[in-house]
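Q: Protein A?
A:
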Amino acid sequence: MQYDKILDFIKSFAPSRHSSFPGLLLGAFLFILLAFFTGFGSAWYMIEKGTPLTRHKFGVWHNWHTQGTVNSDPYTKAYIARSGRLPLNAKYAQYFKATTDDDGNRLTSSCSYIMQGQPIASDWWSIGLYDSNSNVVFNKAERYAFNSKNIARLENGGYIIQVSPFARPDNWLPSEKAGKLTVLIRVYGIQASDDTNSGNVISASLPSIKRIGCS
């Protein structure tokens, strides 16, 4: 049904015997404008959101699994270029991005969250907080990320990170008034992964993100 509506909309621009020249020009202009925004919109979606062919999903975490490989598609290359990260091979480096909590709510600085997980089998990993433009969230405490070397651990080796605009003990990442938030996990020197290097094994260590309240 939706396809029929789009088709009827396009047909409305088709010339008829009674069409005037200005009308034909307007129709052509609107058709070109529609084609431009359709193409631009689909390209933006493929670069920003991806598809199962370009991106794997592990709970709230997303991973562009072909980055830095010979099989990397143009959309993945555009995504990595836009992020400003070096396109390291997935065998050696992987990145996991989350923009929602475990319940599917958009991460925002007006709410507080608890992230809980286990160490990732790798040489080094970090968890950082960013705004919707991929900029670090500047704060007076100068806390922007925790990594496998400096994060405070629980007795079982796991960790808890609190994301909040209000001061919290131990592993606290201030969200200030950044608005929409993004959490990025960087993993280097992966010691455990599956045969496709897609992160299916280390995904078991990715933290949960639970919202505990909003102001």
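Q: Protein B?
A:
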Amino acid sequence: MAVSNVIEENDVVELLVDIRPTLVRGMRGTVIIEPRTDLDVVHVEFADRNGETIEMVDVPKSALQIFWKVNDHAVVEFTQGWGERDDSESPAKGWRGDVMAILPSGARYRLTFYDPGRSEQNVSHDGYLSEPNLVLVKRTDRASIEEVVHKLYRTGELELNYRPVGT
């Protein structure tokens, strides 16, 4: 699946070149006003390292690359399924090992989720915790797992820090 290179409202973009003293290469921001296709500039809200917001108008599209498109997301699949009982059992167990994140590129990541209580229990019993593609979350409920997978994908951490299936 090819991702469109057209910059749209709510797309997260990354700055390719320093265009102003307040903006540095690699900064990421969100397009907050849908650009007109006849203009080569957009209005972007950047976040600096301190979490402060920097709004910039008339940022040249040529200075940006799309980092994450609002309609571009990972699909979360529970390979053992997710039934009504899982709504209570998964958080109670504090562990879920059947999570598959499927990216628009087709790459698949099998992820294992633990909450702090379960991970501490395993470390206390075994002396260590070792799982491939381990993700530690506050709670192993469906909403938390899906939210974290989407965040890992949006930020690029999934492809940077985890191994896809088959590698």
